[in-house]
Amino acid sequence: DPQLTGIVPDKGPVSGGTSLTVQGTRLRTGQRKDLTAYVGQQPCYIVEEVNGTHLVCRTSPSNQTAELTVRVLFGKAERSVPGQVFHYMEDPVITEAFPAESFYG
User: Fold this and answer.
1) For the whole model, what pTM was predicted?
2) How many CA atoms does the CB half-sphere of 16 hold within 13 Å?
3) Which of 34, 39, 46, 59 lies 20 to 30 A from 9 at CA?
């Protein structure tokens, strides 16, 4: 019986693309094609081979900032991370970079 125990990191930009590690036990249950992950209602695309203790997925974009539950479906069995949510944050804005010039080598 798979169980989810945590997520790392617990926040990322609304533009998506965060590499999210879902931690747990007995995660390699059933066939890979039956395994799907979600942050709220948005799919989180599994990008690495799942092992018994963690899976890694890439978050989808969100249309708003929010605190959402992370869920994994093992076929028809759904599990969520207890007591922890993923925070979609505003995208960072870069206003300046230093140094403004670099050497050419």
Assistant:
1) 0.87
2) 14
3) 34
